Amino acid sequence: MPEVLVLGANGHLGRNLVETLLKKGYSVRAGVRSLLHPLPIWEGRSAEVVQVDILDGASLDQAMYGVEGVFHCAAPTALWAKDARKEIAAPILRGTLEVIEAAHRQGVKKILYTSTCAAIGFHAPKGSVLTEIDWNRETQHPQFKSKVEAELQGGKLAKKYGISFVRVCPPSILGPGFYRSTPSTAPYVGWINGKKIAVPDLAYHVVDVRDLAKSQLHLYEMADVQDRYIVCGPYTGTQEVIDILRRGMPLLKNPILLSSRMLPIAWGLEWIQRQVTGTPRTLTRTLIRECGSATQQLDGSRFLATCEPGWAFTPLETTLWDMVHWIQRSKIH
Length: 333
Ligand SMILES: NC(=O)c1ccc[n+]([C@@H]2O[C@H](COP(=O)([O-])OP(=O)(O)OC[C@H]3O[C@@H](n4cnc5c(N)ncnc54)[C@H](OP(=O)(O)O)[C@@H]3O)[C@@H](O)[C@H]2O)c1
Fold this sequence. Notes:
This protein is of the alpha/beta class. It contains 11 helices and 12 strands. The strands form 3 sheets. The chain has a 7-stranded parallel sheet, sandwiched between helices.
């Protein structure tokens, strides 16, 4: 089997992706930024762990030497940073262009790039759904804006070099297999650990991380150059998620549900908290303006059309319970 490189291999998606690739018999080079962070044991199978920073061309060259393809899922997932340009935008945009440049130098012909459905958009015209032809060009959020640019500029650069650059746009990624939470899993970690949490009352898609890993491998093996795919699981909402979890754990404290009108107040409280305790923020005014009242309905049929009959996304309950058990078993805080 050919050798592939996974960038961001100790992240939520990266860990699951390495697992999926190893199960399919691939030789895997697992690219991690720091060897000091906990390294996963991929269920007894070994991946070659390499240290790589996506902003450092030399380390990318070394990591890519001799591989057939690259799964690029390394990116900051924070929605807020003190210096958003440096800490969020640069690794996403410049990091992706560095990955493509290194792929060109090393003769790698295929990159599977994990973008986000925030690059598709949050608001479909009434009565319709968002598809791969939609682009969130209005966004001012540093993470979403740089994902849009990484897809567009990355696509152009890859085309120039004759590299296949397949873009996958997932919604909120949930499920087991992470050692540090992302903005998508953090509320569950807090909640399961008994903290009183406040969550926005939203409607959204989710995707099980294992489904996403499996679909990335499927697309890697079949997709044409420059394709873009929405890979999204069930459409749900905050209340449904709370109901599912409280059915199995009735002692869980009820979270505070924040309507879109309450979000600016939550932003203000969080701002004060940061001044006092220095805790990182999760809400920004841009985020509230762009996503606060979003009902992001996505059409994932383009991806489904590539799948064998019988392909199905994991039911929401299974995803949530497997994630909860992972948080408890692995003592994630
Ligand atoms: N989580 C979601 O709900 C969600 C939704 C849509 C799209 N996505 C996208 O999916 C991809 C994977 O996200 P995830 O959920 O797996 O997040 P994650 O758990 O935070 O993993 C991100 C990974 O990227 C690595 N990374 C960050 N900056 C890097 C750099 N300069 N060089 C090398 N590695 C770097 C991190 O390494 P360290 O451990 O060293 O920090 C980590 O391994 C990202 O592109 C993200 O934007 C995520």
